[in-house]
Amino acid sequence: MSKSEIFTTRVWVNKTKAEVFDFFSDLNNLVLLTPPLMNMNIDESFLADKVKKDTSFQIKIGYRPLVLKWQSEITDWNPSDHFADMQTTGPYSKWIHKHSFVEDDGGTWVVDEIEYIPKLFPTLGKYFYKLLLKSMFSYRDKQVKKLLFN
């Protein structure tokens, strides 16, 4: 198996840890944080009001006929501090996404760390996947600032 890649990003928002955690634990906000070109939808049969440990959810990304199904489960849950989701079915051999929230200077740092191994072209594709994640999270960081500063 290929070696895991690590992608980390962080963005500061002028909100309390509890407010930021509450925002990120609402699956409805995941769609708002995803670039529109990805055409992401959450399968409503999986939609919970708020996520918690062992919550499973399925998303669909793309346009017909090329739609990726991705199922994840919340594997680590520490309210107001962090939570992690792990892909159980989808485009990666390994995907663990840890969301951490750190109070600082009257606001909160949102820290995302993703450990992943792509299924397709794990060695050659690692640069492509890193660029894809940078692009996705650049959009996400802008949306976080926009949605949490209003």
What is this structure's SSE topology?
Layout: E1 5-13, H1 17-24, H2 28-32, E2 41-42, E3 56-63, E4 66-78, E5 82-89, E6 92-104, E7 107-118, H3 126-149
Short description:
By secondary structure, the chain is α+β, with helices and mostly antiparallel strands. The protein has helices spanning 17-24, 28-32, 126-149, and strands at 5-13, 41-42, 56-63, 66-78, 82-89, 92-104, 107-118.
In the CATH classification, which architecture applies?
2-Layer Sandwich
The level-1 CATH class: Alpha Beta
Low-confidence stretches: none
Biggest sheet descriptor: 7 strands, antiparallel
Structural class: alpha+beta
Helix content: 10-25%
Helix count equals 3
How would you explain this protein's 3D organization?
- With 150 residues, the protein is α+β, with helices and mostly antiparallel strands.
- The protein has a single domain, classed as 2-Layer Sandwich (Alpha-D-Glucose-1,6-Bisphosphate, Chain A, domain 4), CATH 3.30.530.20.
- Helices cover 25% and strands 43% of the residues.
- The chain is built from 3 helices and 7 strands; from the N terminus they run E-H-H-E-E-E-E-E-E-H.
- The chain has helices at 17-24, 28-32, 126-149; strands at 5-13, 41-42, 56-63, 66-78, 82-89, 92-104, 107-118.
- A 7-stranded antiparallel sheet has the order 1-7-6-5-4-3-2, covered by helices on one side.
- A hairpin with a 2-residue loop joins strand 3 (56-63) and strand 4 (66-78).
- The longest helix is centred in the C-terminal third of the chain and has 24 residues, at 126-149.
- It is globular.
- The relative contact order is 0.23.
- The mean pLDDT is 90.
